[in-house]
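tool_call: predict_structure(chain=1)
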Amino acid sequence: MTRSIDLNADMGEYADAGGAQIEAALMALITSCSVACGGHAGDEETMRRTVQLAKAHQVSVGAHPSYPDREGFGRRSIDINPADLYTSLREQINALRAVLKSEDVPLRHMKPHGALYNDAARNDALAQLVVDVAPDTAIVGPPGSALEAAAQKAGAPFIAEGFVDRLYRRDRTLTPRSTPGAVIADINARAAQAAAIATGAEFAAADGRLTLNADTLCIHSDSPGAVETARAVRRALEAAGVSVAAFALGGS
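tool_result:
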């Protein structure tokens, strides 16, 4: 049987026309998207535009909440009371839910953004808080992480994610963005990493080699060459005998 894998991108993070054009082109090449809902980027206008675009391309939609940190684009770990963080995340997701309801589009998953994604992957209590915020949706996160354990404990579907444009370490964590080469610049290298992850083959890490099991592959829409990367990734997956399709939930 030919294996299939989901191809996702984080969306709704641009406010300018040029960025919106990139997202529009990228949407035609992916099968699911995670929509920024106000914590690090996004507002009602960008959420609605992104949801309408996803609907037009039959792309599954998820929420992409973050620490409330627009100034730092959600890429800084911040010291925040857990109750306040829970409230913020609920407000972000509910804002997207309201848009989705008005557009008759289901919320299919939730993927925390940036520092929250990385922190929740390592911290059991934070992972549980993130899962508790959206108990009725699938959780997207790193395989083998605290997020996966929390989702399993809650009985929530977990979607293991791999990154095509980020340099991994051998322990399957991402190298910090402050590290030179943390974002893979070469589009062919991104495509090769995508194909390796999808087929279970070894690929290069910062400190060795590794394999990674994933149900979905992420392309960052704000990485230079995102659209060209998506095209190259699809070509590489096709050559490897892997089809691109939205991830299944509950065997559906």
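agent: The chain has a mean pLDDT of 94. Proceeding to next step.
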